[in-house]
Design a protein that fits this description.
Blueprint: E1 6-9, E2 26-30, E3 35-38, H1 57-79, E4 83-89, E5 92-99, E6 102-110, E7 112-117, H2 124-137, H3 139-142, E8 147-150, E9 153-156
Parallel strand pairs: 6-8, 7-9
Antiparallel strand pairs: 1-2, 2-3, 4-7, 5-6
């Protein structure tokens, strides 16, 4: 069993804190050396207490699902002998109420656009099958309660 982690760091600075007038900007540090600026979403906490240039947890969740799905898709396509030239996904998540005053990511839509080249290319059923298996194998999607839909397209180079 693998363990995955990161270090999340935040410092108050000279803000009063209990008046809620403090910065939500923080840093994510990953074991490979990547450092990512994080913040609450400006949809959740107004400016200037959120940093819109930083990654918020909701965006990170969408990116994780999209990245996991893509990595499985690419692996499966290669195993089938298909050559993928590019893969781009404009993924989105919707936040909504789930009852008792709580909110959650209620829907994630992946919109991958895949370009294949080479002599062996899948048809629509083949692409659908690759996405289906990629979704089933994606660790992140398997960890969520929300629905994850794939509404992608593909073409030959």
């Amino acid at each position: 069993m693998a363990t995955h982690g990161c270090t999340v760091e935040w410092r108050r600075g000279d803000a009063a804190f209990t008046d809620l007038q403090y910065s939500r900007a923080h840093t994510w540090r990953f074991d490979g050396g990547a450092v990512v600026p994080g913040s609450s979403s400006p949809h959740s906490v107004r400016l200037p207490f959120s940093d819109p240039s930083a990654v918020d947890p909701e965006e990170a969740l969408v990116a994780s699902v999209s990245s996991c799905h893509m990595l499985w898709f690419l692996s499966l396509a290669a195993a089938e002998g298909y050559v993928v030239d590019s893969y781009s996904d404009a993924a989105e998540a919707q936040m909504g109420p789930i009852g008792f005053g709580r909110q959650a990511i209620t829907d994630i839509v992946l919109r991958p656009q895949v370009v294949f080249s080479g002599a062996r290319r899948p048809d629509q059923a083949g692409v659908d099958a690759l996405h289906h298996v990629a979704h089933e194998r994606c660790y992140i999607a398997n960890s969520l309660r929300t629905a994850v839909r794939v509404e992608g397209g593909w073409r030959g180079a």
